[in-house]
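Worked example

This section walks through a single chain of length 259. The input is the sequence exactly as stored; nothing has been trimmed or padded.
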Amino acid sequence: MISSHKRVEPSWEVPRSIQAFCSTRVGGVSQPPFDSLNLGLNAGDDCADVMQNRALLRSTLPSEPIWLKQIHGVTVSTPALRKSSGIGPIEADASVTNIPHEVLAVLTADCMPVLFASSAGDVIGVAHAGWRGLSSGVLESTVQAMCTLSPGLTPQDISVWMGPAIGPAAFEVGEDVLHAFSGQDHSALSPAFAPIIGRPGKYLANLYLLAKSRLSSLGLTQITGGGFCTYTDQERFFSYRRDKVTGRFASMIWISQGK
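Given that input, the structure is written out below as tokens.
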């Protein structure tokens, strides 16, 4: 069983019915370079080890996580979509639900996991927000899906926690990434891309600032998290940018029965 010191819990104010945490790379059976709690089946790890890791994770959860086939897009997996799609992971980069004990999950290793919860504790969401999904609107799509699922819900009633992602001191990007966000408010764009001295066309990008700006523009005010760096925190987190061949950790959220 995964102990509490091998997870990261959100720092946010939500109803007690909302349960959530991020796994770390600690506490599994995978061998290097996937050591040790790799939960990604498509990272190149031994499938039997990954399934054993997922079984360890499952022992701490009310149900099997709803795994997604993540493609850096903006599609949101909803209860209705899952019901109609049949067996197998849905090709999506976010999930929402209003059903107790359904565990929503995304896998990351530098991209930003973002958790969402309504103030009433009746609807939740999770998104996989790398720069592609973030610039394309995956956070906006998740908020919209939550509001559709809970009539009367407004963005002001949604709390957000930004989980472990590559930090602004390590995320070097080029002009293509800057241009992907060109439609964003310049007052938010400028501080989120720090030019690298002596390297024209290269920047250090801040995913947390970019996400917070987009969420704020929707009317969300309860935004916490950030401050992590998967690239530098090698002891706790997998990082694709750092290691290339590596595992994935999971960020999960569900609604328990009690409020």
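What to look for: The radius of gyration is 18 Å.
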